[in-house]
Amino acid sequence: MKQPNTTRIISLGFAAVILLGSVLLALPIASRTGESIGYFNALFTATSSVCVTGLVVVDTGTTFSSFGHGVLLALIQTGGLGFMTIATLLFMLAGKRITLRERLVIQESMSESGPSGMVRLIRWVAGMTFAFEGVGAALLAFRFVPQFGWGKGLFYSVFHAVSAFCNAGFDLMGNYSSLTSYCADPLVNFTVMALIVSGGLGFGVWRDMFACRGSFRKMKVHTRLVLIASAALIVLGAAFMAALEWVNPDTLGNLNPLEKIQAAFFQSITMRTAGFNTVDLGAMHTGTKFLSSIWMFIGAAPASTGGGVKVTTIALLGLLVYSVACGREECVIFRRTMPRALIQRAVVIAMISFTIVAADIFLLTIAEPGTDFIDIVFEVFSAFATAGVTSAGTPVFGRFAHIVLMISMFIGRVGPLTLALALARKQARGGEKLRYPEDKVLVG
To answer: How far is the CA of 69 from the CAs of 38, 62, 394, in angstroms?
Structure first.
């Protein structure tokens, strides 16, 4: 049997969902006023939701009707789990047999080693996702139901739980406010933070942790690396955020010490691809925006609901630097040698991603000359890493800038994954058989 072109199927699948979502969101019934928001605005919103980004050109809470919010919820869930996961679940509900071709696509989209057990894996992923989102919605209901009533409060709880677990960052609070009105609320903060981290760790990591019953030493190298790198980024990000913004009256300055620490951790976690915020990001210092851009570029873990170049990619690059500095020929972690092909793949993904981001920044500096450079950098990194936070305000940009951001979101969500799969496939084939004589060039 001919192996399916997984990269093409994944790309076209995401594109098809975006186009379908844009048509639905452009319908008058999707707007609260009964008038269409326009196809371009609908296309941007659909792209942002399927790519689980969170950047918007119209206010989500006040622009869309209940139908529109329902469409957004479905698009976010599809984008977070991946369209192949959703399609497989629908096939299973309809009683359709999952073919070997479909199992191969699921295998590569979920970064698994073989096609066996794919249906069982999809069931597990769906069950775990709905369990996390269900618990998160129940906790948020304690805050939203008393505030908005049973019907609206329950829907708000479900919507924000799904948006948080899928690292989408869409909110229904209105006036582009995100969760700023809950900055000092520990229930909302810790529930949303837990959902973001849970979705960003990756389904494979959770599966391994459950299989090993929490024993760190028994876990796979990938799981241990993701857990350590994620914890380090969260703590370091919160420390830098607190140090840089502690006395800034427009962000953390007017909060008490415990609230400042809570807000610092929330921003550190959400910058890694979630898209929510509890403080005014536009009022952050330039240094904080620059550091946040780096955190966004790193992103979440592979095979997760988050974006970025992934924590494991950056960890392998750091391991490569350390090995070269120590004069070692191999990269070793947890007493395991990392394959050279894997290191090369990490370098290529990081370099191509950085090149795309640099090109987007260049285009936006031309298209938006009146916007501060750091705000353009922040916006581009946010779009490519599917973080969904903004300091300049996405709606103020022009049409050309919005097109650049849409392309960046799509590449950021689909590109690194398909690139990694394509590289893995080529390397698995053994590469070139012909070897040429070695030579040297000067570097550094």
So the answer is: 16, 10, 20
